[in-house]
Amino acid sequence: MKVTEHIAQAKEPIISLEILPPTKGKSIESIYSHLDPLMEFKPAFINVTYHRAEQVYKKRADGNFERVEIRKRPGTVGICAALMNKYKVEAIPHLICGGFSKEETENALIDLHFLGVKNVLALRGDAAANEKFFTPHPNGHRYAEDLVKQVISLNQGKYLEEDIMDGVKTDFCIGVAGYPEKHFEAPNLDTDIYYLKRKIELGADYVTSQMFFNNKHFYNYLDRCKEHGVNVPIMPGLKPLTSKRQLTMIPSIFNVEVPVELCNEMLKAKTEADCDQVGTEWLLEQCRDLLRNKVPVLHFYTLGKPKVIYNVLKQLF
Ligand code: FAD
Question: For a substitution probing ligand 1, which of 121, 123, 190 has the most ligand atoms within 8 Å of its CB?
Fold first, then answer.
């Protein structure tokens, strides 16, 4: 079922989870052991992230270094199929512009359509590790809105090869990313929402938000999006913060604020278990407040801490 249909029909808040494919060489069992306990809460969707190749330097036998491209986390499409098969759940693959040509994207969309995937999250992706700014693939897209356009074209039966007449129409429901504390490249929140609105006007159906640790950012974002005429569902992205290291790591990677109260509690924690407890309590309060404010979906970034998410969900439902 499409995300928008789920939301329209839901009588209870919907749970959505997000996972990363395992690194190359690791088994899919690591995903199952991560997700198995969480299935008790009947998530409606499981998002699977998409990852571009990275340039790394490998030492050759002669002592010189060689630059090679390695895709450390392949398998998004296969994992979606496996999750749908095993858990009978809607899997939502992420698609990114960075590192992929339009043709590779089209082929991935064809595979997903054949597998019965109904939803995709269309993203730009970040700059490659060796670049300061995002550079599109020579035959790819610069912005997520261009990827949205490609998915919409395929939904209309228009393929890249113009000779394909009467092409099968796909029917993807399209999600896009939104940033309650603005995307780090955007000059201000209004400009960022202006571009979000363009993605919606082109045909995107819903928004999944970047993580935030202070709900006031999310409520402000909902208000500002409404003022700009963005009227599609916006799902809050939620992540437990469970270590002192994350107090500096999360803001630097995701450009989000960690509130002073959360920092203070985390700094007081003495053991790993104390840190987990601080993260659990904070996330639980965030969720309770969001549910009181009638948010229809809670989207959890489960990476690395499924037990914390489990404990939060157990206390919520
Ligand atoms: P865009 O919507 O293209 O926006 C990028 C920037 O350009 C913004 O500052 C925006 O304001 C601006 N902009 C947009 N359109 C235009 C335009 N036409 N002209 C000028 N400026 C414009 N990354 C991955 O690599 N893999 C993933 O699986 C992944 N999953 C994610 C899931 C979620 C829910 C979120 C929030 C992020 C995810 N990311 C992922 C990270 C994301 O790829 C980065 O945040 C990226 O930098 C921006 O992606 P976007 O889709 O928001 O880009």
Answer: 123
